[in-house]
Design brief:
- By secondary structure, this protein is α/β, with parallel strands linked by helices.
- It has helices at residues 27-59, 74-85, 87-93, 98-122, 129-138, 145-159, 162-170, 188-191, 211-226, 228-236, 238-245, 255-260, 262-265, 274-279, 348-360, 377-385, 404-422, 439-461; strands spanning 61-67, 183-185, 283-285, 287-296, 299-308, 326-332, 369-375, 429-433.
- It is built from 18 helices and 8 strands.
- The strands form 2 sheets. Strands 4-5-1-6-7-8 form a 6-stranded mixed beta sheet, with helices on both faces. The protein has a two-stranded parallel ribbon with strand order 2-3.
- α15 links the parallel β6 (326-332) and β7.
- α7 packs antiparallel against α9.
Length: 464
């Protein structure tokens, strides 16, 4: 039908009319405005509740920094916390530490062989009092060249694997200064673990290791099993013992533990024990975050522990300081006879004192709970009992008795004096003598330190 002139609509088309109330307000528009207001209010309320939840979660976060020089025991303390509060996660990681244990053993064997060659070749021209004493002790053993040549020949295939194992574990990470070994960044476990296509779990049948790492680990295992008797013979050889006792051979602190356990480790079905995990050594780079849930007085707190790798440049620590609830500083007092690898003129205890001074005087730390752990007391006892004189390496020790009680108190007093002189906020300092390898004693300290830190956090945040 054609439209009639003057009309906007055909009479055959429906016309939608707007409805108005008595005040002339569009009812449909009013409905949508009210609905939008209700939705907006609901969103605002949910955002507010989410903000409150996040604020409460942040207030229940306890951030703890682990600080100290390389090989001070930070990673071992982190494992102790993990063992106490999240042992299931540590159990899951056990297969990943197997190649690291092998690396510790390979490195120790290589260091013994290298030092043996150096000492036996140069002993005849060493006219020092110490050198003559060592030569006198070795004389009854006769000519050792043939015996050690046989052992070296047998152990060459094992030692030759050190670099390839280090390379796979490091994942391409290199350290300046020509230093060699295994250096890993935070999250290294993920780099050596293959994942299924959905990236959610490790592939079956690999022992938790990526194909490349699994291959070199398997080869290291088979080689170690084949030469375990030779490793044991080398480690227990009288000449090696004489050189160790006279400090002509120096090994990493973990070496004696694993060499003493060579028969246990050199098994096809070997899986690292808890003691292995605590003794194994691995240089870390960067900052690793570990999370634990801790319950205290019926409330749950999220403990965030930051392990600052000892190989990190020290100015890189600072950005992580400003909101730390607490700082646990580890000082290995057994290292009084050792010097920094990067600076052979600096005694390691002196270096720890300098680091502790910087921490006490750092303005960003002034509100952080401060805990000092004078660590590796077990190794300190062994050195003193073996007759190592502290005054030979730290002249200020003077003629004080070379006993554990006197030496440990001497170091404690020095760190306390640093705190008194340099702490800018006059905080309390909590001092503990520790041996990270003593599980029971360390976990007692962990509970006490943890509760003290959380109670301080509660008081500060008003959660109580």
């Amino acid at each position: 039908m054609s439209k009639r002139p003057g009309h906007a609509h055909s009479t055959s088309e429906p016309i939608l009319m707007q409805t108005f109330d008595a005040a002339g307000i569009d009812k449909e528009s009013q409905f949508y405005d009210e609905e939008a207001a209700r939705v907006s209010q609901k969103i605002d309320e949910e955002l507010k509740r989410d903000w409150v939840r996040r604020k409460d979660a942040q207030r229940r976060q306890v951030k703890v920094m682990l600080l100290g020089q390389a090989e001070s025991g930070k990673s071992t303390l982190q494992k102790q916390f993990q063992l106490y509060y999240a042992h299931h996660a540590l159990d899951h990681e056990r297969p990943l530490w197997r190649p690291v244990v092998y690396f510790n053993i390979l490195k120790a064997v290589r260091m013994i062989l290298d030092e043996l060659d150096h000492e036996l070749n140069n002993l005849s021209i060493d006219d020092s009092v110490e050198g003559q004493a060592v030569a006198h002790s070795l004389a009854p053993l006769g000519d050792l060249s043939e015996e050690f040549s046989r052992l070296r020949t047998k152990l060459v295939p094992l030692v030759a694997m050190e670099d390839s194992l280090a390379s796979e574990l490091s994942g391409g990470v290199a350290v300046t200064g020509g230093r060699t070994g295994v250096y890993v960044r935070a999250g290294w476990q993920a780099l050596v673990t293959p994942l299924s296509p959905n990236r959610s779990h490790a592939l079956p049948g690999t022992g938790g290791l990526s194909p490349a790492v699994a291959q070199v680990t398997s080869l290291a295992s088979r080689t170690l099993i084949a030469v375990q008797n030779e490793v044991d013979e080398l480690w227990k050889h009288p000449a090696v013992r004489i050189l160790l006792n006279n400090r002509r051979i120096r090994l990493d602190e973990s070496a004696p533990f694993f060499l003493d356990s060579i028969k246990r480790v050199a098994q096809p079905d070997y899986l690292p024990s808890t003691a292995d995990l605590l003794n194994v050594r691995l240089q870390t780079l960067g900052v690793a975050e570990h999370s634990f849930d801790i319950e205290l007085c019926g409330s749950r707190y999220n403990w965030l522990m930051y392990d600052v790798g000892g190989a990190v440049r020290r100015h890189a620590w600072v950005p992580y300081f400003d909101d730390a609830t607490a700082i646990i500083f580890l000082a290995p007092i057994s290292a009084f006879d050792q010097y920094l690898e990067e600076d052979p003129r600096t005694n390691r205890v002196d270096d720890s004192l300098q680091l502790f001074t910087a921490i006490c005087s750092n303005k960003l730390l002034k509100n952080s709970h401060l805990v000092l752990m004078l660590n590796k007391t077990d190794l300190l006892r062994k050195k003193l009992e073996a007759g190592v004189k502290v005054r030979k390496y730290i002249t200020s020790y003077g003629d004080r008795p070379n006993t554990y009680a006197d030496v440990s108190e001497y170091f404690r007093a020095h760190f306390i004096q640093v705190h008194k002189r340099h702490d800018i906020n006059r905080r309390a300092l909590y001092v503990h003598f520790t041996s990270m390898l003593d599980i029971r004693a360390t976990q007692d300290i962990i509970v006490n330190v943890g509760e003290a830190i959380i109670r301080s956090h509660i008081a500060k945040t008003g959660l109580a």
